[in-house]
Amino acid sequence: MRTTKRRRHRGWWFLLLALLSASACSSGNSVESSADEGSVVRMAVTDLQGLEELQREFGAFVEAFEESTGLQVEFYPVNDRVAAAAALQSDQVDLVFTGPAEYVVLRERVGVEPVVAIKRADYHSCIYSRADSGITSVGDLKGKTVGMSDIGSTSGHLGPSQLLVDAGLNPRSDLKVLTVGDAVHEALKRGDIDAVGIGCHDYEEFMETDNPSNYKC
User: Is 124-216 in CATH node 3.40.630.30?
Assistant: First the structure.
């Protein structure tokens, strides 16, 4: 079920990861004012849970940030974008590193403003199935079950849903969509679902630990 590169890019110019400030929140504090007061910037990341994971994934970023700005970064763990919105609203965090879909939610709920946007190369969504499934195109998924990662995920939910729509399918009525998190690939191998819609970077990681010839993308 290969999608062309042009098609993958369609409608995805906004796929940027945004660093947001709480300057438009009810507290009225900006990143600059917070930094002036204590030289500490409190930062959260919406798709990472736990302080240990934050330190492991963003440790190098923090070192470079602190060296270039002279500010100190203090991690603030959150479980999801809802918790991030609450933390911004209650002035518990200054910056949130998040994805484009989460940014839309945060902007609507809290009124955040973007500070920095980072464009990721080859940030696309893929739909793949088992090679023996008989599925040869996205249109063949009508009446089937497709596993995706998390509700609201840009590459693992919104992107695959758009690919279905581009193929003339209604994700709500023409097929069944299950959001099963990181278990999507294993669910496909067990036969619990007929296909997977996920970020292409995740697909490539799965193929590093599996036999690519067993699947069609």
Answer: no
